[in-house]
Amino acid sequence: MADEPLVLGIETSCDETGVGIVRGTTLLADAVASSVDEHARFGGVVPEVASRAHLEAMVPTIDRALKEAGVTARDLDGIAVTAGPGLAGALLVGVSAAKAYAYALGKPLYGVNHLASHICVDQLEHGALPEPTMALLVSGGHSSLLLSSDITSDVRPMGATIDDAAGEAFDKIARVLNLGFPGGPVIDRYAKEGDPTAIAFPRGLTGPRDPVYDFSFSGLKTAVARWIEAKRAAGEEVPVRDVAASFQEAVVDVLTRKAVRACKDEGVDHLMIGGGVAANSRLRVLAQERCEAAGIRLRVPRPKLCTDNGAMVAALGAEMVARNRAASSWDLSADSSLPVTEPHVPGDHDHVHEVSKENLYS
Amino acid sequence: MLLLALDTATPAVTVALHDGRDVIASSSQVDARRHGELLLPAIDRVLAEAGLRLDAVTGIVAGTGPGPYTGLRVGLMTADTFGLALGVPVHGVCTLDGLAYAADLEGPFVVATDARRKEVYWARYADSRTRVTDPAVDRPADIAEQVGGLPAVGAGALLYPDTFPKAHEPEHVSAAALARLAAEKLAAGEELPAPRPLYLRRPDAQVPKNYKVVTPK
Ligand SMILES: [Zn+2]
Questions:
Q1: Region B70-92: what's the mean pLDDT?
Q2: Can you tell me the mean pLDDT for B150-168?
Q3: With bands split at pLDDT 50, 70 and 90, how would you rate the model's confidence at B199?
Q4: Integer Cα distance of A337 and A247 in angstroms
Q5: What is the arithmetic mean of pLDDT over A70-78?
Q6: Would you give the DSSP letter of residue A182?
Q7: Closest to A42 (Cβ–Cβ): which among B34, B70, B207?
Q8: Assembly ipTM
Q9: How far does A58 lie from chain B, in Å, by closest CA?
Q10: A43, B34: Cβ pair inside 8 Å?
């Protein structure tokens, strides 16, 4: 059992209700219910809308995942859930469901870190993670470079965005171009027909004195918006395809450059890329080119495993079981700012000590 | 019959077990900010106190609010998931009805809970078992005429004495009352509704106007 644990994972940190089931590093089910359409007219995820949708979608999505995997709940070796980081109210729906499910089935509960899950999901695609692995996580919520020597216990932040997440920049530029929400897929599509060298947009934080591994997309976003506004003010047509391609190039150029640099500096020969922006076709191509040139093996899961899903949570949960990590306790809480350095939230054993200390004085 | 009742729609995290005759164990803690952490340990404690395991439960009763959403969902999600895992029915009971039942009053009265933002969730009752208005959310001053002069229970009534001069206990709902009410209704052959949340307000969300121009004028 310990080698190939059967684990169900629940993810509700943003707008996807994800329930996945894995056996060790084998994907058995990846059921996702998304509320993205309900957020579209707001131009971004509305936390309360997402939380309401999670509550309605949870039970049907668990059901669907079990059917897809062809297993019964009784066979499970554990239940994993995203404990954070993410939207507080949304996380709490998933944590409540996972606790109730684990308790009712008499299974151990593992509250795990959303970012570590994004890295661990690659085990379902390419087998056991090399140790160490450098990971570039890019989505609407995060942009970070992480180095992990053991995904269940050691994740070190190398760099992160100092302002907007990469995916946020895609959403904002799509809005300026009137292309709708979410921005990632539509920019990618337009960019395919545009010239990435047409406009020289700035590369954030790439100066000699800038932090080597941190990102910044706010300045780029403003530069692109200004460029578009200037065109409009002059009564000229905005070349949407060239703008999309040049903006996208500026983002993926910086992302891949810094990720490869981090691998070289740390002597790491594997780079994994995850998060919703990892679905970007240009990012995948440029990362491949630059990794090959640097002798680095690139691992990018298929797009559906890059966006938020329950399988990634199950993958990390299975690893927790396999490596005998302590389960979480029944008072596990959702932590919207759970640090990436905590891949999971083990039960609080100090609790008992505190109580007995108090008794000493009574 | 063994009913597990729970409610997280008010600042109370409250759990009770009812064996068909009466409540055999219960727990209530008031902590508006820790519903997520407190609920499952409370259920575990109540079961242990009764010397029972969760799989002995034949039905779940969940308070459906109205109540502040984040806390409300903790109870409803827990109830839904228990229902799925155990294969037992999950019944919804309006949280205000639980408070009304516990108030044990003969004549007309009002139940009002704290809806925050200077508003109350409220409904009028003919007696402890008969609600005569749909649950609503309003500013106390706006409903003063409708509730004027009536006795009132619940934290919302206690909070606004100008509107509810005859307010008294109970302040929060108890799962024990919820369980007794549900057991009574089920014994009478009544169908209880599905445990869907009574939000009564739309989500806070603004459709953004056109994006903000960044070029200075
Ligand atoms: Zn994510």
A1: 98
A2: 97
A3: very high
A4: 30
A5: 97
A6: S
A7: B207
A8: 0.95
A9: 8
A10: no
Of B40, B55, B69, the CB nearest to A330: B40
Is residue B206 less than 8 Å (CB to CB) from chain A?
yes
Contact B211 A225 (CB under 8 A): yes
CB contact (8 A) between residue B84 and residue A101? yes
Start-end of H helices in A24-148: 36-40, 47-69, 88-105, 114-120, 122-126
pLDDT above 90: residue A354? no
Nearest to A96 among B77, B213, B215 (CB): B77
**Neighbour-count burial of A200, counting CB atoms closer than 10 A to its CB (0-12 exposed, 13-18 middle, 19+ buried):** exposed
pLDDT, average across residues A39-50: 86
Using a CB-CB cut-off of 8 Å, the residues of chain A touching B39 are 96
Mean pLDDT of chain A: 93
Determine contact, residues A320/A110, Cβ cutoff 8 Å. yes
How far is it, in rounded angstroms, from Cα A19 to Cα A25? 16
Q: Measure the N-to-C terminal CA separation of chain B; round to a whole number of Å.
A: 72
Asked if B9 has any chain A CB less than 8 Å from its own CB, the reply is no
In three-state secondary structure terms, A8 is strand
* pLDDT for B32: 87
Q: Which residues contact B61 (CB under 8 A, 6 or more apart)?
A: B3, B4, B5, B6, B79, B90, B91, B92, B93, B175, B178, B179, B182, B192
Cβ neighbours around B71 below 10 Å, total: 25
